[in-house]
Design a protein that fits this description.
The protein is α/β, with parallel strands linked by helices. It has six helices and five strands.
Length: about 140
């Protein structure tokens, strides 16, 4: 009637190494002249545009998608899909973009503007990487 432990040794997970690998995948999607597709609710589009204009992305080919009818077409062309939330609490557009990008096997990242944000359902369900805008920029500029 012994205990049921049954587990073998599991080495500790090196989170720094996992983060580094994730960053490399995102950087790989960003290399070359691949299109960066930013997806956000109309409410957040102005904030996103200001952030892009003040960042490394202003020199890249990118598109901001706020129209649900364009999600399929633009995600198909993307090298990287960036789902952005600032103030919006309506996430059907972002959730749809995550689903489509996943089906197309596109590299996807969720970026929030501040520590106070509403989390889209599919970020957790599809295990999309979740970072702040500052962390997002660090991935590309170090």
């Amino acid at each position: 009637m012994g205990g049921g432990g049954g587990g073998g040794y599991s080495p500790p997970i090196n989170l720094d190494k996992l983060t580094e690998k994730a960053n490399q995948r995102i950087q790989g999607a960003f290399q070359g002249k691949q299109l960066v597709v930013f997806v956000c609710h109309r409410v957040d589009a102005g904030d996103l545009r200001r952030r892009i204009d003040a960042s490394v992305f202003r020199e890249r080919e990118y598109v901001i998608v706020t129209d649900p009818a364009l999600i399929d077409e633009e995600c198909a062309k993307a090298g990287l899909v960036v789902c952005f939330v600032s103030k919006s609490e309506e996430h059907s557009l972002v959730d749809n973009a995550i689903k489509i990008a996943s089906e197309l096997k596109k590299q996807t990242i969720f970026v929030h503007a501040s520590e106070q944000y509403s989390m889209p359902n599919y970020v957790l369900q599809f295990r999309v990487r979740n970072v702040s805008w500052a962390q997002f920029l660090e991935i590309f500029v170090g």
